[in-house]
């Protein structure tokens, strides 16, 4: 059986100047730890103009940074 992880980029209010980068850093760390734990798949959401849900309009770039 294979397991994966889904990262949604959830960013609740209140925001500050580091909010988005903090979410990306946390998700990168989570993906690395999931890989170390044996997870084999990673999914990420892609949405536009959704303030608190998914701040990634190009998840491929985030996935490349994680890889």
Q: Which structural class fits the helix and strand makeup?
A: alpha+beta
Helix content: 25-40%
Terminal CA distance reads 22 Å
Rg on CA atoms, Å: 12 Å
Poorly predicted ranges:
none
Q: Outline the biggest β-sheet.
A: 2 strands, parallel
Tally the structural domains: 1
The overall pLDDT average reads 90
Q: Strand fraction band?
A: 5-15%
Entry summary:
The chain is an alpha+beta fold and 67 residues long. 39% of the residues lie in helices and 12% in strands.
Explain this structure:
The protein is α+β, with helices and mostly antiparallel strands. It has one domain (4-66). Helix content is 39%, strand content 12%. The chain has two helices and two strands. It has helices spanning 19-36, 59-66; strands at 4-7, 41-44. It has a two-stranded parallel sheet. Helix 1 (19-36) crosses helix 2 (59-66). It is globular, with a radius of gyration of 12 Å. The mean pLDDT is 90.
């Amino acid at each position: 059986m294979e397991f994966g992880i889904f990262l949604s980029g959830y960013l609740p209010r209140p925001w500050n100047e580091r909010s988005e980068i903090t979410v990306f850093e946390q998700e990168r760390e989570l993906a690395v730890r999931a890989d170390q734990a044996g997870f084999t798949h990673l999914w990420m959401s892609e949405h536009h103009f959704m303030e608190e849900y998914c701040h990634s309009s190009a998840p491929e770039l985030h996935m490349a940074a994680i890889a």
